[in-house]
Structures are given as C-alpha cells and as structure tokens.
Design brief:
The chain is of the alpha/beta class and 316 residues long. Helix content is 16%, strand content 32%. The chain is built from six helices and 18 strands.
Length: 316
Amino acid sequence: MNQNLLLNVVVSAVSRQTDEVSCFELSGLEGPLPVFEAGAHIDVHTAAGPRPYSLCNLHEANGPYVVGVKREAAGRGGSRWMHDTLAVGTRLVIGAPRNHFRLVPEAAHHCLLAGGIGITPLVAMARELGRRGRTFKLACFARSRAHAAFFDSLRAAPWASSVHFHFDDAPAQQVDLAAFCAGQPEGTHFYVCGPAGFLAAARRATGERPGGQVHEERFAAEPPANPKGLDRYTVVLARSGRSVRVEAGQTLLQALRGAGLNPLTSCEAGVCGSCVTPYLAGQPVHGDAFLSAHERQHQLALCCAGSLGERLVLDL
C-alpha cells in the first residue's frame, strides 16, 4: 500500500464514549477504504495540521475507519478541532493506514496494557484476538469508571472474562500492574499504550521479560538517550546531489523546508512514522518513538533526528 496516499472520507457516525472521548466513524467517498490490521493508525488532516489517531475497529469489506479521540484542552489543537467541528456529513482528508504496533502472530499468549486513551489501538487488538480465538488478557487503567472509554462494549464482549479494569478512585477495583504482568505465562508478548508515566510503570513491570516481547506505542517521543548531536552540520541529498546546511537552533526538518523541500510529515513529534527516510552515511541522533534498533541502522525520522557528525547523507 502507498502510505503517502490521501483518502477523501465523510463522517458517517459520531458517538460519545466519555465526557472527553468521542468516536468518529469515517466512510470512504471513492470506494472501499484500504485494508488495515489491528494496531494501525491514520493521519487525520485537521485545521491544526495532520494528526495521527489509532483505529479502534477491525477491517471489514466496504467498512469504515473508526477513531477514538480524547479532547486535549492543552494539546496542539487537532483534537479540539475534531470535537468542535466534525459532525455527521462532514468531509475531510485522511492518510492511508500505517502500522508500527502489530500483533505478533506466533506469540503463545498476549497481554494488552492500556493507560487512559491508550485503549484505542488495544481495543482493536483485543477484538482481533477474540475473533481468532487466541488467549489474551487486557488490563485497562483509568482515573475512574467515567473516564473509561469502551467500558460497556468491553464488558459485553464474548471474551469479557479476559478484560480487567483498574480505576484510581475505586480501591476495590484495582489491578497491581507488576503482579498482573508477573502472572502472565512465559512467552507472553506485551503491548503497552498510554501516557509517559504509565509506560514507565509498564517497563518496570515487564523488566524481566525479553525485550523483543514488549511492544510500546507512545503519545510522544522520549528525549534521545544518546547525545544531542552537533548544533551545525551538513545534510547531503543523495538523489539530487544538493547540500543543505543545518544551523544552530534549526531542526533537520526546518533546514530541509528552508531549502525548498516539502517532506511528508504528520505528527512532527516522532510518533507516527510519516517522515521516516533512509540515510546512506553518517551518524544520526534518533529521537523517534517507533523505529527498532535494526531500522535505526538505515532509517531516521526527519522531524526529530540530529547528527553526531559533520555530514549526514539522506536518500532524498
């Protein structure tokens, strides 16, 4: 699939999950929408720019895409625009599905850990695992029952016995994250999505598990663990032979745009993957939240990469 493909859709339904979270059903205007797998997200082109949102439904022939969006009052404006603007009949543009958060088909058991609105990709994973008849556990952490998106549908699912809820305001209905993870069988693959504090707690709880069995989807990229890199360096564009100078106070993406290039971007926070680009030489500093160690040997995210050396060669 061409992941740069833009799709024209119409809002075919809107439903309220909580006071802060709404689901928007998007139907294709030009034929069936592309196939996707559980864990995928789409870029919604809002008035504040493209924003990535996870798909919380499963693919069906001629079916819609459904995204669950939390209104973030202090965010960058995308979620506020969606909540304030979108209604049944509204037309908009989205990107084709991308997926950096897939289920591992060979896993003997799956454990899904959702913090707050991090439930959106995981509810699709739970539905897919239930449809396949695979063994799994889903733990949903929220401030209260009123803040728990998809509560009713999860309680009504045929696999509801695999779902556990933790509410901060209800001591009798709480899950010990460390004990819950420790209780999962050997060979379990863990899938974690939520805010930074929840991710950190989940990392501690799964710290004894092999790294390849723990998979994360973040709301924002973490600061690079390696050095910041040089303030000034040169980027060579291999296809055209051009050189672009990155100056102090500039990001790589800003320098490329200043040179007249218009790379595909979306979140510009290192979490969606839209600006991933191969590099051919140099030592980049990686600040994204999704590339694996193997992928980082030959790819970088333009929006949040830097350079440890004076010269970085991109396949552009």
